[in-house]
Design goal:
Distance between the termini: 61 Å
CATH superfamily of the largest domain: FAD/NAD(P)-binding domain
Structural class: alpha/beta
Strand content: 25-35%
CATH architecture of the largest domain: 3-Layer(bba) Sandwich
CATH topology of the largest domain: FAD/NAD(P)-binding domain
Shape: globular
Helix content: 25-40%
CATH class of the largest domain: Alpha Beta
């Protein structure tokens, strides 16, 4: 059996894996990252939205071919059709070309000195005395082994690394998504991302319209445990009921799973760290995970290098990664999760009331967790309607 040796092995070449590999390589440490598909970034499963901050934190600029469309407004559509717009005052978003974006992240890791191996499928971790010391995999139909001082699982929500290591089998809460890439459109304003909320459209989640140009858009649905039919059926209904999509051509059908229960309790063990979707590092309110993954990968890479140089890759030492991640991103995930569970208690009628009193500033705060300042502002604007929402929350 062929065996490969390295200091750090990263499983997965998505944003989390590529940023981890690049960070390690930039410190002069030997790193291999493996990817089961032929090209990083394929197939595409997500809505492809990302802020300019996320793009630049990944080491790229918002230019073609990485981005398709600049987004200057996020529009929330309530069940009754009322809209609340968030305009780009201190932020700008883009619809990505994920295949190009992810490939560029992986290419930059390789340029930094990381070794990328594609069409390699991990089958499980290798343990010695409860410490992870490598990974078993299949390459070109043959069994191979990778031995490493630190293994980093960046292999998505159904992480074989996480499960084979004996960490969480799966997540407590997740969104099931279905998406069409539609062409032949004539969008009035392609700089607006739309988020349609309420059980009317997507029970427990939301529907989205993310333009890639004036004539092309990603249109999708994410549903949670309240749904009564598959996500694709809600998507078909949503598309059929919007006249803008009546003559559209479906260029691509895709979908996926987004964990929304927050970062897992255990994401490190002796010789192992989890990052990105494998660790549950997505914003529960939106299912967004690219920016989290980029930052998580950087932190995991730095901690791995430090631990190796110190000769201590114990879970206790590697837990510095979790501490640093939680300082900002972990806290943001936790607070957004609280807001998600609050909104779970709201009916479509309650969401219509919320749309009457909430501002775009309130929404920005709520995405990071409901706090006293937001509530105080809502009370000042409409105390009677706020009381209606509080009753809904308590029922």
């Amino acid at each position: 059996m062929q065996q490969y040796q390295c200091d750090v092995l990263v499983v997965g070449a998505g944003p989390a894996g590529s940023m981890t590999a690049r960070t390690v390589a930039e410190q002069g440490v030997d790193v291999i990252f493996i990817e089961e598909h032929e090209t990083p970034g394929t197939p595409v499963f997500c809505g492809e939205g990302l802020s300019i901050g996320g793009i630049r934190n990944g080491g790229l600029e918002p230019v073609e071919p990485f981005v398709c469309q600049q987004i200057t407004t996020a529009r929330i559509v309530a069940p009754n059709g009322k809209t609340v717009d968030m305009h780009a005052i201190d932020w700008t978003g883009y619809t990505l070309d994920r295949s190009e974006f992810d490939k560029a992240l992986a290419d930059n890791a390789v340029k930094a000195g990381a070794k990328l191996m594609v069409k390699v499928s991990a089958t499980g971790v290798i343990k010695e005395s409860d410490q992870v010391v490598g990974v078993k995999a299949i390459k070109d139909g043959e069994k191979v082994e990778f031995r490493a001082k630190v293994v980093i699982g960046a292999d998505g929500h159904w992480s074989i690394i996480r499960r084979s290591a004996g960490l969480a089998n799966y997540f407590d809460d997740w969104v099931t998504c279905a998406q069409y890439k539609l062409s032949g459109l004539d969008l009035e304003d392609s700089t607006i991302n739309e988020f349609w909320i309420g059980a009317k459209y997507a029970p427990g989640g939301y529907a989205w319209v993310f333009p890639k140009s004036k004539s092309v858009a990603n249109v999708g649905i994410g549903v949670r445990d309240k749904h009564t039919k598959p996500a694709i059926e809600y998507l078909k209904d949503f598309v059929a009921n919007d006249p803008r999509f009546r003559n559209a051509k479906i260029e691509l059908k895709n979908g996926g799973i987004c964990p929304v229960s927050g970062t897992l309790d255990e994401i490190v063990m002796d010789g192992l760290m989890l990052t990105g979707d494998a660790a549950g590092q997505l914003i529960p309110m939106t299912g967004a995970g690219i920016h989290c993954s980029i930052e998580s990968g950087k932190i995991a890479g730095r901690v791995a290098v430090e631990a190796i140089k110190e000769g201590n890759v114990s879970a206790e030492r590697l837990s510095a990664y979790r501490v640093e991640f939680d300082t900002y991103w972990g806290n943001r995930i936790f607070e957004a999760g609280k807001v998600l569970h609050m909104l779970d208690k709201f009916s479509d009628e309650d969401l219509n009331v919320l749309a009457d009193v909430i501002s775009h500033e309130d929404i920005m705060h709520m995405a990071n967790g409901l706090n006293a300042s937001v509530m105080a502002g809502l009370v000042k604007k409409s105390p009677l309607k706020l009381m209606q929402l509080i009753r809904a929350y308590l029922r």
